[in-house]
Amino acid sequence: MPIQINLLNEAQAQEELRRRDPVKRAIFGGALLVAVSLVWFSSSLLTHVVASSRLAQVQANIQSHTNDYNSVVVNLRKVADAKVRLTALTKLSASRFLQGSLLNSMQQLYVPNVRLIRLQMNQTYSRVQPAATEEGAAPAKVPVTEHRVLTLDAKDSSANPGDQVNRYKDSLSQLDFIKANVTTNNAVKLSNLSAPQPGSDGKPFVLFTVECRFSDQTR
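and the corresponding structure tokens:
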């Protein structure tokens, strides 16, 4: 029986040993893990970039809607304020104090030897500022109170100057227009009375002032 001798047996054994070397396997496995990690990192980076782009777009849309909302809130506040002012002006024009009615009433006032020298109507307004409201809320109505004071300067040149002063004051308080616009009994009062003094014709007279405080009107 022939004997076979493999001269390459030793070289083949060494080659097989090299192929089964654990260090090479570890290196190959590490390289494979690095490659997989790079693929995963690239995929995550791409996902992050896409998500960041979408987030920026959503934030831009939110900011745009926020600006539109703020603009709408400001416009609504202006519209509500204009409505309040318009309503107040309408009420004021409908219930304002009519100077013509006052002058017509004064024509009915006559006391012998008493002459009206000057008529003055003072009208002042006051209001209380409302508390601050929430943003976007309609402004609270601000009530406005009107104060009216009628001042009459007159001259009494009767035989006994000063006798007609109280009669003039009482006659004024009995006018229908005056009674309709006052609520207190002492609304008409004498505020000034001068001493008798001679006139240019030698006839003495006194000057006096009567005030009539009308009832306050709140609108």
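(Above: one complete record from the training split.) The beta strands are 114-127, 144-156, 188-193, 197-198, 204-213, 217-218.
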